[in-house]
Amino acid sequence: MRIAMIGGGYVGLVSGACFATLGATVVIVEADQHRFNALRDGRLPIYEPGLAELVSAHRAAGRLRVVNAINEAVDGVDAVFLAVGTPSRRGDGHADLSYVFDAVEQLAGVLRGPTILVTKSTVPVGTGARIATMMASLRPDLAIEVASNPEFLREGSAIEDFMNPDRVVIGTNGPRAQAHLGALYQPLTAQGVRTLFTDLETAELIKYASNSFLALKISFINEMADLCEKLGADVTQLACGMGLDHRIGPKFLRAGPGFGGSCFPKDTQALARIAQDAGAPTRLVETVVAVNETRKAAMTGRIISACGGSVRGRRIAVLGLTFKPDTDDMRDAPAIGIIHRLVDEGAIITAYDPMGMDHARFQLPARVNFCPTARTALNGVDAAVFVTEWAEFRTIDPDALRETMRGRVVVDLRNIFDPATMATAGIIYHGIGRKLCAATNRSDQPSQRLPVEQVYARSLSII
Q1: Looking at 263, 307, 371, 437, which residue is catalytic?
Q2: Does the fold of domain 200-463 match that of domain 2-198?
Q3: Would you give per-residue pLDDT tens digits along the chain (463 residues)?
Q4: Are 170 and 196 a contacting pair, CB within 8 Å?
């Protein structure tokens, strides 16, 4: 099957490469000149584990190519997927559909035969029907069937999510679209993946409802973390006890600084606005949005409190900038607000992230000192704050951490470390929803700091 993918961003690039893996011939259209140049030159404009190798292999085999104009991609294709951005519209939280409808207008001018037009982007309920009406008006001579095929890709594990999904959702009222899209996904259904066929409106709503429910789980466990701190309980054990119930499950029950990224913030806001406009307000979703914003804003207060009530003149290392590990995505990352306020409060910030610093430079104050390694970011600081749970942070040796820092305060917003182990190392450890462990009183004086080379010979994982 031949398909065109309009949009070479996160969803379009991952989906295009994975469709090629399923046997399709794919042409990706990327209109942004910077991204197109990168793709043309074999460089990916985003980071996703395994994606560069997959794209390279399919381009070499002739199953995947990238162009920068729609008219170069649509001749002879069986289906056209729309994978353009639908960011929150400034001011009201609704999804901005300008990129979607601009692409539809361009397609109307270049399509030459019957086509299946599929929305892969997350779009409000009723968008597919509007696209069908537009195409019927602009090209009444063509038989165009519209479908919705929402994506459920987690950044950092997107290829696995595409190739081994929990389900495939296809919304359409057209028999030809159902047959073609069913055939496109046949390699997955042959492996036992369930394909759910619905109408357009239900498919569009499934994506919003799914993301909002997962966001609700995150906000719930974050509120439970606050309650644990008041009652002397441990949220990690609480989450384990809840997650062992198969009706609940363990996923998305990790307390932290609030959710960010490209999906949950905008999708919860959009669903709340959709429901309000429909006269059926989703009070739970509205509360999730409010709880998450409050959560992110409160994180800096936790850090300031852990530092004794003031960070003015303090050197603070912030480890982990992206909204989650294994991505370079900075969209709505909690670290952004945290660092801005710390700088406003007079802190001196050193920052490190394995993949996100190039994007972070454009969103953080110029006074932030970006470091090439965790080692250099931690050296001589008064406090360390862990905001994203990158794997390399999990194996940091607490003794090396203590001896490298000038101060003793560690604020762990992802519960990466064991509180008792950190206390034994002489660290004043602050987690989320966990009891405060007093540092072992090894000395009332600042520790004698070893030469950096000796410290990191004992903790190669930091280097």
Answers
A1: 263
A2: yes
A3: 999 999 999 999 999 999 999 999 999 999 999 999 999 998 999 999 999 999 999 999 999 999 999 999 999 999 999 999 998 887 678 889 999 999 999 999 999 999 999 999 999 999 999 999 999 999 999 999 999 999 999 999 999 999 999 999 999 988 999 999 999 999 999 999 999 999 999 999 999 999 999 999 999 999 999 999 999 999 999 999 999 999 999 999 999 999 999 899 999 999 999 999 999 999 999 999 999 999 999 999 999 999 999 999 999 999 999 999 999 999 999 999 999 999 999 999 999 999 999 999 999 999 999 999 999 999 999 999 999 999 999 999 999 999 999 999 999 999 999 999 999 999 999 999 998 766 665 544 444 443 433 433 333 333 3
A4: yes
Q: What is the pTM of this model?
A: 0.90
Structure token digits, residue 88: 């929150």
Concerning whether 263 is annotated as a catalytic residue, the answer is yes
Annotation: CATH topology of 200-463: Rossmann fold (3.40.50)
* Residue type for position 408: R
CATH-assigned architecture of domain 2-198: 3-Layer(aba) Sandwich (3.40)
Q: Are 410 and 401 in contact (CB under 8 A)?
A: yes
Element (H, E) at 218: helix 200-231
Which pair of tokens denotes residue 148?
């919705």
Cα–Cα dist 77/407, whole Å: 62
Domain ranges of the chain: 2-198, 200-463
